Amino acid sequence: DTEVTQTPKHLVMGMTNKKSLKCEQHMGHRAMYWYKQKAKKPPELMFVYSYEKLSINESVPSRFSPECPNSSLLNLHLHALQPEDSALYLCASSQDKRSISSTEAFFGQGTRLTVV
Amino acid sequence: GEDVEQSLFLSVREGDSSVINCTYTDSSSTYLYWYKQEPGAGLQLLTYIFSNMDMKQDQRLTVLLNKKDKHLSLRIADTQTGDSAIYFCAEKNAGNMLTFGGGTRLMVKP
């Protein structure tokens, strides 16, 4: 199983709503990532979790709040978003650097978020 | 900081070989990856290469790495119309960060 599963696939939310994006993997990977991708642009790193601890926060506004409840799950809580936050949000996972091997980094299919 | 660059666009005829190039600056890169993204979809991992290798072949895909020049390429043999997509190279450093190039849009003409 080399899948990273993201739900929902599509989400439309108002600027006052609170919603959550979910990501799940069962490959035993201990590094998990959130990326934001605007149309025709490369993915931009938002957060990195390593062994369930936040290790990198790329100066992301506090209206995005990540959570890693266990080694298989990664959430992104959304609150008071702006229309410019509309994008494809991608989750990824890989072995952590402390593993003997640290090879593939797999991505989910993404959640296409529209803020209205 | 890290910088990964790719050319924006490549057009080939069906059956020809495609070569997509990428340059990077981070000398602490551990792994380098090639991803394919079709419209509206996530990123599909195509192949990767460890930084102490110089070549890897996987069916129609050949990855060449020149570590001295920090140059990575992806060759797709016998390119098909289904290969039309955006191709991203990415490098992973010792800190687990994945940095992407800007993507190369490959168009395959019948």
What can you tell me about this protein's structure?
With 116 residues, chain A is mostly beta strands. Chain A contains no helices and 11 strands. In chain A, strands 2, 4, 5, 6, 9, 10 and 11 form a 7-stranded mixed β-sheet that branches. Chain A has a 4-stranded antiparallel β-sheet with strand order 1-3-8-7, with no helix packed on it. Chain A starts with a strand and ends with a strand. Mean pLDDT of chain A is 89; it is low at 98-102. Chain B is mainly β. Chain B has no helices and 11 strands. Chain B has strands spanning 4-6, 9-13, 18-24, 31-37, 44-50, 55-58, 61-66, 71-76, 85-92, 98-100, 104-109. In chain B, the strands form 2 sheets. In chain B, strands 2, 4, 5, 9, 10 and 11 form a 6-stranded mixed β-sheet that branches. A 5-stranded antiparallel β-sheet of chain B has the order 1-3-8-7-6, with no helix packed on it. In chain B, strand 6 (55-58) and strand 7 form a beta hairpin. Chain B is globular, with a radius of gyration of 13 Å. The model of chain B has no long low-confidence stretch (mean pLDDT 91). The chains are: A mainly beta (116), B mainly beta (110).
